[in-house]
Amino acid sequence: MTDTRSDYPFQIHGRPDFSYLTVQIPAGQTLKVEASAMATMDTTLTMKTKMKGGLGRFLTGESLFINEFTAEGGVGEIGIAPGAPGDLEHLHLQGQTVFLQNSAYVASTPNVAVESKWQGMMKGFFSGESLFLIRCSGQGDLWFNTYGAMIEVDVNGGYVVDTGHIVAFTEGLEYHVTKVGGYKSLFLSGEGLVCRFTGQGKVWIQTKKVRPLASWAYPYRPVKNN
Fold first, then answer.
1. What are phi and psi of 217, to 5 degrees?
2. Is 151 a residue whose pLDDT tops 90?
3. If you average pLDDT over residues 114-118, what whole number do you get?
4. Separation between Cα atoms, residue 224 and residue 199, nearest integer Å
5. How buried is residue 199: exposed, middle or buried, by Cβ count under 10 Å (0-12/13-18/19+)?
6. Please, are residues 137 and 100 in contact by the beta-carbon 8 Å criterion?
7. Which residues on adjacent β-strands are paired with residue 138?
8. Is position 187 within any domain?
9. Is residue 215, in this structure, part of any structural domain at all?
10. More confident residue, 160 or 121
């Protein structure tokens, strides 16, 4: 599904460990960017902030804040630095829909609709990884990122992914969150919950996840002596 075509000229620097995106926004056009990701921009660009999901979802942590950068004084370049150290992927959507985990969205062109999507209690709360997905659909460019390297997997039938390693997947894949084994395995094996995909489509996974890093770093935290 990866497409080398794009509506806006762009470059991805620093791959695969510390990817950084630069996009040329045509005069009079707009680019949607995840909040706080702008690193540099030309003086021709102006910014406006929008919230996807509404106030109700903001209170439950499901909202997505997006900054819109418009090239009002001629062509403008923006530099985008995602928060997680890892790789970046570009897709040129042509009517397709892709679901992203909540921290993967980086940027998109105006005709790509970006919406937060509630997963439901079993699919969200008990997974322990995220409470909502981001639904991206329409026509245009979409960029998303990972923590660690990114691997694209063709699914034809069934596939199982740890919930913390899911980055994105295409519409048409059915999925549900479940245990690897019994409840004893859930709490003692360290594997947590998995997402079982069925159908035909693509899944993008990341090679790292935050929770094991936090567990590894925990013993080295500063401790105040009483």
1. -80, -20
2. yes
3. 79
4. 52
5. middle
6. no
7. 112
8. yes
9. no
10. 160
Quick one: tokens of 49? Answer: 């902030």
* Tens of pLDDT, residues 128-144: 444 468 999 999 999 99
- Rounded-to-integer distance, Cα 219 and Cα 156, Å: 42
Rg (CA), the chain: 19
> How many percent of the chain have pLDDT more than 90?
57
The amino acid at 145: N
**Strands 105-108 and 10-13, bridge-based pairing:** unpaired
Number of C-beta neighbours around residue 103 at 10 A: 19
Beta pairing partners, 117: 133
Tokens of 10: 């762009």
- Residue 22 sits in a domain whose CATH number is 3.60.160.10
**What one-character-per-residue DSSP string does 161-183 give?**
EEGGGEEEEETT-EEEEEESS-H
User: Which long-range contacts link 210-219 to residues 24+ away (Cβ below 8 Å)?
Assistant: 210/147, 210/164, 211/128, 211/164
**What are the helix (H) ranges across the chain?**
54-59, 183-188, 210-217
Residue 1, both tokens: 């599904």
Range of the domain at 29: 10-210
Q: Is residue 225 domain-resident?
A: no
CA dihedral (121, 126, 132, 137) positive or negative: negative
In a domain, 182, yes or no: yes
User: Domain total for the chain?
Assistant: 1
